[in-house]
Amino acid sequence: xxxxxxxxxxxxxxxxxxxxxxxxxxxxxxxxxxxxxxxxxxxxxxxxxxxxxxxxxxxxxxxxxxxxxxxxxxxxxxxxxxxxxxxxxxxxxxxxxxx
Length: 99
Prior knowledge:
Elements: E1 9-16, E2 26-32, H1 35-42, E3 53-58, H2 69-86, H3 90-95
Antiparallel strand pairs: 1-2, 1-3
């Protein structure tokens, strides 16, 4: 397996959670670099034994996983503060003693 590269062009294999009628949600099964490998993997994994869907895709950013609620709160607080400060001019930050 090669390294995960955000923005890399790949082929995504997706199927449906309801393999009988196809009335469920779409779910991701795997990513492949080569379309031929994705199509080979997709065989029999779709609704009623049909091939799963293979589409060109771009790898998304990996999600951030927090160890604790406190870690999330700290990161979120910093993010909110940074966005709030970005809305103020230099003069406003100086007046508030934030620089």
